[in-house]
Amino acid sequence: MKALIAAGGHATRLRPITWTTNKHLIPLANKPMLWHVIDKIVAAGISDIIINVNPGEVESMRAAFGDGSYWHAHLTYLEQVGGAQGVAHVVANAEEHLRGHKFLFFLGDNIILGSINKFVERFQNEGLDCMLAFSRVKDPQRFGVPEFNDDGSLRRILEKPCEPPSDFAVTGIYLYNEDYFEAFHSIGPSSRGEYEISDINTWYIQSGKKVGYEEITGWWKDTGTPDALLEGNALVMDCLDRASFVVEGTVEDGAQIQGDVKVGVGTCIAADCLVRGPVTIGENCTIAGSYIGPYTSIGNNVTVKDSEVEHSVVFSGATIDTTERICSSLIGLNATLVDARRTHPKTAHRLIIGDNSFVEL
Q1: Which of 239, 267, 301 lies at the terminal end of a domain, its last residue?
Q2: pLDDT one-digit tens code per residue, 68-85
Q3: Of the candidates 239, 254, 279, which is a domain's last residue?
Q4: Residues 233 and 252 in one domain
Q5: Number of domains into which the chain is organized
Q6: Which of 7, 71, 112, 121 is most solvent-facing, going by the fewest CB within 10 Å?
Q7: What's the whole-model pTM score?
Q8: pLDDT digits (tens, 9 = 90+) for 182-196
Q9: Phi, psi at residue 116, to the nearest 5°?
Q10: Range ranked top by mean pLDDT from 92-101, 110-119, 214-223
Q11: Are 88 and 199 in contact (CB under 8 A)?
Q12: Residues 197, 199, 204, CA angle at the centre, nearest 5°?
């Protein structure tokens, strides 16, 4: 089998972070989001992986993941051609690489608990033509939603229905045979002007193909919003092997390290600090006079001084020097947070806020 990962798009709900950073490179537990997806695909026995990216982003992706040798896999980077025409068109864009093969299609911004091995194994062992993964959600109208017959078999998949026929969402994990391309050439754009993956799945069902489905009983998250991204970061940290929480930097006498904490090479945790895990701190950071609370991920070359940070993702190069408590926040690349009371006038806030920013004072 091969695998195709969708890693394009513009992630407008995560701006301003995604003005300059592809969403799939946003760090979760100090590794790019897509890193965790590749981990799961390789663990399922698939080593030939294609990554679909926005035009002009091949080199930035290659810089992050290389040629796949880290995983003993082979990565191919493929630019999306023809612009954004829907999820189904992403697969059509890779037809020359996938035709003649069964393949896994994985939306790169999906984070799940546990492995995908059972989905791949069932698809293979039962000789299925299509395999879908469902998850129960509170807001199915935001997703593709399965409609069932009375006997529990699938009738069709509806894309973002106003009145969902079930409380299941079709997650971004799909398995197909090469009939996919017959399906694609049989459908047209929807009223949204996009080729819908739901129409592909309905084609498989209504054409009498062998379609299976499995419910994801653990945790699944589409990391499309800041809150979901922070939740995804926490999930990944909870799932890390405890052996990965190692201290390779310097922890001065008197510093308190509690729970699972990872400290990178060249990082210094000063004596007047409390770090309460799970926490991951990158390389060459300076943490002084500060409290770093649970579910915080700090990138490389970050300075945190006289501050409190909890349940947040801090990107590389950032500086935090404020007496205000920072919680449930995304702090972008090379961002600076300083205390207003250390400047004049002391009763004012000085802000430089870009498009689509969110600030709570």
Answers
A1: 239
A2: 999 999 999 998 887 778
A3: 239
A4: no
A5: 2
A6: 121
A7: 0.82
A8: 999 999 888 888 888
A9: -105, 10
A10: 92-101
A11: yes
A12: 100
